[in-house]
Amino acid sequence: NSRGAAAFLKDSIPVPEFSASGPFEGQDLLRRGFTSVKNELLPSHPLELSEKNFQLNQDKTNLATLRNIQGLHAPLKLQMEFRAVKQVQRLPFLHSSNMALDTLRGNDECIGFEDILNDPSQSEVMGEPHMMMEYKLGLL
To answer: Which has the closest alpha carbon to 131: 139, 122, 119?
Structure first.
C-alpha cells in the first residue's frame, strides 16, 4: 500500500520519474509499493476516516474548551505557538521527531501505538538527499 508507507513519513517529498513512460513500462515497486484498486476506492474500515482525523478533532475540541474557559486570546496564542513549532524542522531527508509539537499538545508523556511500531528510521522508504533538497528549494 503506497499510501500507508507515505503516511509513516511526514516529511516525504514526491520524486519525479526519470524513466520514459510507456504502455509496457512496469511500476517502480521500491518507491511506490503495490497498488490496489480497492484501496483507492473505499476506506478499508468505517472508523478509518475517524482515526485519520482524530488529532484534528482533538485539537478543535481542546481549543473550543480553552476559548470557553479563558477567552479568545488563549487559543489564538496556542495556535501561533503551533505554527511556529511546525515551521522548525530538520532537513527533508532526515526524520523529525516533532518533540516541541508533542509537548505543546501534551502527548510527550503518552506512549502510543505509533511510538513503538511507526518508527520512520526503520522504514524501507528513503529518498535521495540531493533531490529532496533541490525539490524543497524549488530547483527541480
So the answer is: 139
pLDDT digit string (tens) for 42-85?
667 778 888 889 889 999 999 999 999 999 999 999 999 999 99
19 with 25: CB under 8 angstroms?
A: yes
**Domain count of the fold of the chain:** 1
Angle (CA) 96 52 94, round 5°:
15
Q: Provide the terminal-to-terminal Cα distance of the chain, rounded to the nearest Å.
A: 27
- Residues spanned by the domain of 113: 91-139
Give this prediction's pTM.
0.55
In a domain, 130, yes or no: yes
Q: Which pairs with CB-CB distance under 8 Å and at least 24 residues apart come from 121-129?
A: 121/95, 123/5, 123/8, 123/9, 124/5, 125/5, 125/6, 125/8, 125/9, 125/12, 125/31, 126/93, 127/12, 127/13, 127/15, 127/92, 127/93, 128/15, 128/93, 129/91, 129/93
